[in-house]
Structure formats: C-alpha cells, structure tokens
Amino acid sequence: MLEIKNFINGNFVKCVSGKTFDNINPANNEKIGVVYEAGKEEVDLAVKSAKAALKGPWGKLPLAERMSILHKVADGINARFDEFLEAECLDTGKPKSLASHIDIPRGASNFKVFADAYKSVANESFLLDTPDGAGALNYSVRTPKGVVAVISPWNLPLLLMTWKVGPALACGNTVVVKPSEETPRTTTLLGEVMNDAGVPPGVFNVVHGFGPDSTGEFLTTHPDVDGITFTGETKTGAAIVKACADEIRHVSFELGGKNPAVVFADCDMDKAIEGTTRSVFANCGQVCLATERVYVERPIFDEFVARLKSSAEKLKLGSWDDESSNMGPLISQEHKEKVLSYYKKAKDEGATVVLGGGEPKMSAELSAGSWVEPTIWTGLPESATVVREEIFGPCCHIQPFDTEEEAVELANDTKYGLAASVWTENNSRAHRVSAQIEAGIVWVNSWFLRDLRTPFGGAKHSGIGREGGVHSLEFYTELKNICIKL
C-alpha cells in the first residue's frame, strides 16, 4: 500500500497528528494508497520553508540558472513518463490514451514554455521632461509575487497544477501546492523530480488534505501567503476570496462553466460531430471547458442529434490500461451520485433521453467503480435544472434555434462564461458570433486547441484574471516603476 506523504523543504514527511485518508481508484472503488493529511503545523512549516527559499537560494539564483533548472524539471517528468502516467490514471481512472497524449506531455511542457516566455518579456521605459530641462527616466522592473498557494483540481491533476507552478517558479516565486484530495499522486511524485533537477529545498512544497477546517483553509488564511491561484468550483472560489479578503491577497481563479456549442446549418457536419463528441464526453465530461449545452440550427437539428448519438454509442468504457477504451469513470462515488441525481432530474423535468441516462453494466472487476453512461437529452426548456447548473459529467442537452441572434442569446443565457464553441464554415459569421459570446475563450470549428501564449480565464462567474503567456507573468510578478531624476 503506497504511503503518500507531504513534501516540505525538500523532504517527504508524514504529519504530527498522524491523520490519514484513503487514496481510491475510481475505476473499481478500491483503496490503493494512504495519504497523510497536513495540519496547521505542516502548512506553517511549508509556508515558512517557501518564504526562506524565496529570500535565500532561489531568490538569489541567476535567471539563466533558474530557467535551466526548470528545463531539467520538464526533462525529469518525461524521463519518468510511465510512472507519471500510471499515477495519473490510477488516481483519475482516465484512459491511458488520453493521459499519455495530454496530461503528462502538457504537464511537462508547462515548465519549458513559461521559462522561455519569461526570458523574452521586455519591461517598459519612458523619458520624462522636467522643468529644469535635465529630465527623468522611468523604467519598470518585475519582482516575484512571493509565496504562492496553488490549489489544483482533480480532473487534470498534473497539467493544471504545472500550468500554475511553471510560471510561478519561472518568475522567481516559491510555491505551496495543495492538490485535490482525490488525486495526490503526480503532485507528490513531482517532488522527487524537483530534487533530482536541483530545485532548492523550500521552493516547491506539497501539502495534502481537504478544504474547510483542513489543509486548504490553513493555507489560504496563512498570513505569509502572498497570492493564491485556484482552479475549481465557483462556490469554493467564492469561499477562498472571502477567506483572503482581510489580507488583500491577490487571486487568480479559473472556476466553473456551463459551456455552449453553437452549430450552424452551414457547418461541416463531420467536423462538428467529431468536435462535439470530444467536447461533451472527453475525460468523462470532467473538463472545465466541456460542452453541456448544444444549440443547433433547426434545419440540421434532427440529423445532428442522430449523428451525435451514433458517435457517442461508439465510446468504450474501460480501465485505464485497456488500449481499446476511450472513456473512464467519474472521479468518485460521491461525484457519481451527484451526476446520477442530475440524470434523474432531467427525466423528472420531462427530458427526452436520446442516449444513456443511467449506470452502465460493467465487468465484475469494475462493477463497484464510479461509472455512468454517456448521456444526451433534448426537449427541455432553458429553465430546466440540467440546462442551468454545471453537472461536470458526460452529458449534454441539445436545443434547436432559428436565427443567429437567438443563438447568441441562448449561448449567453448563463451566469458562467468560461468557454464556447462555434461551428460554421462562414468566416464572417464566425468572427461576428464569437465576438458576441460572453466567454473567456471561443473556439471556431475546434475544441481544446490551446496556444499557451494566449490569455486563458473566465468571464462572469467563471473566474478572475487571465493566465497564459505574458498574462501569467502579470499575476506571478509585481510590476515596480523606478523613477531616476537625471
């Protein structure tokens, strides 16, 4: 049985209290590890270690050497690719085919991308005229934010954690990471890679535990934490904002979504079906950017529904190491019950169940896992629960529309604004509609296509701030102006 410890100041430690919780494989609901829950003592030690490293070896390291170390971290992940892959898949249940192409390579590349981005960012300077004619020179300098608390989610554990840790370390900060209690393995394994790459003790710390009255609360309320970056539920984000308001801590949040896809009659139907199948069902629908509302122009509505059903019927549920499977379980029994409760609400509110709507029949060894069926509904009003609330499962509701204006109105009729997809072969319409949709990112004839140099984040209840490229540097650094009187 694997013991998963906290990683503090370059060492793996248990906890003073001795409290542990189980690490569960969601594919079969079996216990696969024991995780040590960090209390106030461990969180305080982690933050103090991060603060000391900030003032000490990491803060004094030449830029070129810091960037070289981050490249070694990326190389270290890739050198242990299979270990990270197995750890990620055991924690999440996701298929090997998905994690090997997205989670692990993208998780590693985040260190190189942001190290290289930081080296090429220029600061501004201005020459100011003064009454005496001598002038003054103003120029900007970037300094690290300080100790950054990184609270990462369970759906893409390595990728979304390094998406924050990579730029934070590139900018010279130190971090204390609290991964989701559901997925502790790859974040812990990264501690070994950090040591091997020569990252000084205290620069990267990991504390395990839960949210309220546990590790998460102890970390977000710690007085020596200078910034908090979080990916997760909107409700949790609101609680963190309240917790850190008194200390005026800077925050960067990517929160929930109820993302629309708008499919016009002039779309390439093959592209739209393939893309929507991925955007609804990839990672069992457990992607912040996933599509849960699909709006289809009426002339092609029936064909689209039939073809999306046919495409989803080809999905194969199975264990992570089954080469033929392309869909795993939900993350936990608790989340399974939540998603199934929405499946029931859809039926109770009068949905036409086009596909799924329940639990699949799995093999004996997987029967106790957190499995649900890929599900498609039609026939519900926009006021229906499953159309309004984020479900975070492999499901969508499909609704027809008649005009472009109606499509935009339907897409924007939500408190969220994270992502959207538009499917059309008319370039003018693509530009026009995308500009009107209230979301942080709009894909046209694609989904989950990411250039890491571009801004990423949500509008409305879907987040605060932007990360990616220079936008990450804006959060992870303090911009200082220096004025020199000549």
Counting helices, strands and paired strands, the structural category is alpha/beta
Q: Helix segment count?
A: 15
Q: Count every beta strand, where a strand is a DSSP E run of 2 or more residues.
A: 23
Low-confidence stretches: none
CATH superfamily of the largest domain: Aldehyde Dehydrogenase, Chain A, domain 1
Rg from Cα: 23 Å
**CATH structural architecture of the largest domain:** 3-Layer(aba) Sandwich
CATH topology name of the largest domain, in short, is Aldehyde Dehydrogenase, Chain A, domain 1
Largest sheet composition: 7 strands, mixed
Overall geometry? globular
Q: What is the total domain count?
A: 2
Helix content: 25-40%
Q: How would you describe this protein?
A:
Helix 3 crosses helix 4. Helix 8 (about 235-245) links the parallel strand 11 (about 225-230) and strand 12 (about 250-255). The protein folds into 2 domains: about 1-255 and about 460-485, Aldehyde Dehydrogenase, Chain A, domain 1; about 260-450, 3-Layer(aba) Sandwich (Aldehyde Dehydrogenase, Chain A, domain 2). It is built from 15 helices and 23 strands. It is about 40% helix and about 20% strand. The termini are far apart. With about 475 residues, the protein is an alpha/beta fold. The protein has helices at about 40-55, 65-80, 80-90, 95-120, 155-170, 185-195, 215-220, 235-245, 270-280, 300-315, 335-350, 385-390, 405-410, 425-435, 470-475, and strands spanning about 1-5, 5-10, 10-15, 20-25, 30-35, 125-130, 135-145, 145-150, 175-180, 205, 225-230, 250-255, 260-265, 290-295, 350-355, 375-380, 395-400, 415, 420-425, 440-445, 460, 465, 475-485. The strands form 6 sheets. The chain has a 7-stranded mixed β-sheet with strand order 15-16-17-14-13-19-20, sandwiched between helices.
